[in-house]
Amino acid sequence: MFTLQLNSIQMIRWVVFLVVVVLLEVYAFQAFRTLIKSRAFFAFYFITSALALLFIVYQLFHFDRTVGQTPKTLATFGLLLLLYVPKLLITIILFSEDVFRFFAGIIRLFSAENSTPFLDDRRRFVSQLALGVAAIPFASFLYGMTKGKYNFKVIRQTLFFEDLPEAFDGLTITQISDIHSGSFDNPEKIAYAIDLINQQNSDLFLFTGDIVNTHATEMDPWISTFQKIKPHKYGSFSVLGNHDYGAYVKWASDAKRAANFEAIKAIHSKINLKLLLNEHVKIKNEGQEIVLIGVENWGKNFAQVGDLNLAASGLKPSDFKILMSHDPSHWNEKVQHDAKHFHLTLSGHTHGLQFGIEIPGWIKWSPVQYVYKQWAGLYENKKRYLYVNRGFGFHAYPGRVGIMPEITVFELKKDKKAT
């Protein structure tokens, strides 16, 4: 009974999907037909559209929940966005014109002009507008898949703290997050990014989770590349992210899932990272110290295995604290209100959805902001700072549009004015 019900639900989803696709294709064809009369063009258009749709349907139908994301699923989702987001915009514009044409026809039907056709011909300039608008996401998604996903940016932040110990005035930290090694397909670009990390010559290196998409073996081809990250004066540390727990695939047994989790934790030491699991370390210099705290993943909508109280056990509010917590919702829900006063929290997780618009000083927008209040960059509440890294790798969509992969470099300065 359950199987039949599940199959019925799946069938309904497929029917809805195909109906939507047909609708988008009909409107896209109308836009092209208004402007182009070449039979050769339309033969090419129909063949390529049909082949692309067959590939997408085949890949979606054969998605293996025991394997999870693969290069083929990445390509499938990328192709889906590349083809159908532009066609969706065309449909919206032409459908709006159809609504106008329909009501204009109703008016004519009850007027002296009822001898004219009920619907006007589709206007050429509307089709031109629709295709022009559709070209923007098409070009953007194509760029994001070919260039944007490896367009690494070094972003610098200088932060001032009244109670930063003098011995750490000028401390530099390099942060990356969300490696998602299972998505990589270009060794040269990753090697280039590692060179960028090394060029920063920071005092401390921090990685804030999601080293793989699901399986520990995804990192195997990249171990030697990440081993080239140079030692840092105060060490290199890391925490886990939601993808590191293997929660997004079906496992043959709990034992295999547990073994994968242990293998993922072991990766960190292989690339010279000290993994912090709800614990802290004290970093000392010239008789003074700061505290680095690492919690396991805690997300409002994901696994909540991070234990802030355990990780900060024995610490005082006056201790200068840097917290690594993968999901920024942890800061929003818990950390910023904690009486122990966590000076700086470093997170990742959102990727900025790998899609948005950022023009410094002008605009910062991504659809992910409707899910996460803090989704990219620096946030502050009562001298407690959160920085959300936009991510090193990519996931689901094999590209980045407007939100580029990030290497963040912080310089911590003592606020002399307050002393």
Descriptive notes:
This protein has 419 residues and is α/β, with parallel strands linked by helices. It folds into two domains: 2-146, no CATH class; 148-418, Purple Acid Phosphatase, chain A, domain 2. It has helices at 2-35, 39-61, 71-109, 124-146, 187-199, 223-226, 254-270, 308-311, 328-333; strands at residues 153-161, 171-176, 204-207, 236-238, 274-275, 279-285, 288-294, 321-324, 344-347, 357-359, 363-365, 377-381, 384-388, 406-414. Helix 5 (187-199) links the parallel strand 2 (171-176) and strand 3 (204-207). It is elongated.
Describe this structure in a few short sentences.
By secondary structure, this protein is an alpha/beta fold. It has helices spanning 2-35, 39-61, 71-109, 124-146, 187-199, 223-226, 254-270, 308-311, 328-333, and strands spanning 153-161, 171-176, 204-207, 236-238, 274-275, 279-285, 288-294, 321-324, 344-347, 357-359, 363-365, 377-381, 384-388, 406-414.
